Amino acid sequence: MPVSPPRAMPSTTPNPSESRAVLRPSAIWHYGFGESASGEEEESIMSRPFGVALLIAGYDEDGPSLYHAEPSGTFYRYDAKAIGSGSEGAQAELQASYHKSLTLAEAEELVLKTLKQVMEEKLDANNVQLASVTKDKGFRVYADDEMKSCVGRIENE
């Protein structure tokens, strides 16, 4: 009969099937080194360094939809959302400037201006990519010439 490491205990996770994944690093440490991991070591090996957040966009009979899926598996619906490096400043700008009546061209400009404010390097058509989801064209990634045109519009202001 397997013996649990002394510091392992039942846990609750957002997804019940994750319990083994949460306890396994502590068990490996215990069996590999013959000792329990310290609190700091357990915290380090239990962290999620490779969590991924996703923005999922779509269009249906109710109109456009945008969802933010977090690494924990929870998701929220937004009208406009920024994720990643610089997201706090970008989100504040989106909340201040976004409204549902924006045209696609206005939305492109808002996104690029927001990115320009939070990016460390100079924004150009080679270091940013846009995609859109519309009723007529569905999902599409902008071609290089479209990106140059969009970036050119905000540079001329």
Task: Describe, in plain words, how this protein is organized in 3D.
The protein is 39% helix and 17% strand. It is globular. The strands form two sheets. It has a three-stranded antiparallel beta sheet, with no helix packed on it. Strands 4-5 form a two-stranded antiparallel sheet. The protein is α+β, with helices and mostly antiparallel strands. Helix 3 (87-97) runs antiparallel to helix 4 (104-118) and helix 4 packs across helix 5 (144-155). The N and C termini lie far apart (71 Å). The protein has a domain at 50-156: Glutamine Phosphoribosylpyrophosphate, subunit 1, domain 1 (4-Layer Sandwich). The model is unreliable at 1-13 (pLDDT under 50). A hairpin with a 3-residue loop joins strand 4 and strand 5.
CATH topology of the domain at 50-156: Glutamine Phosphoribosylpyrophosphate, subunit 1, domain 1
- Compressed to H and E, one letter per element, the order equals HHEEEHHEEH
Q: Can you count the helices?
A: 5
> N- to C-terminal separation?
71 Å
Q: Which CATH class of the domain at 50-156 is shown?
A: Alpha Beta
Bin the helical content: 25-40%
CATH architecture of the domain at 50-156: 4-Layer Sandwich
The overall average pLDDT, rounded, is 79
Q: Strand content of the residues, in percent?
A: 15-25%
* pLDDT < 50 runs, ≥5 residues: 1-13
CATH homologous superfamily grouping of the domain at 50-156: Aminohydrolase, N-terminal nucleophile (Ntn) domain
Structural class: alpha+beta
Instruction: Going across the biggest sheet, name each strand in turn.
Output: 1-2-3
Largest sheet: 3 strands, antiparallel
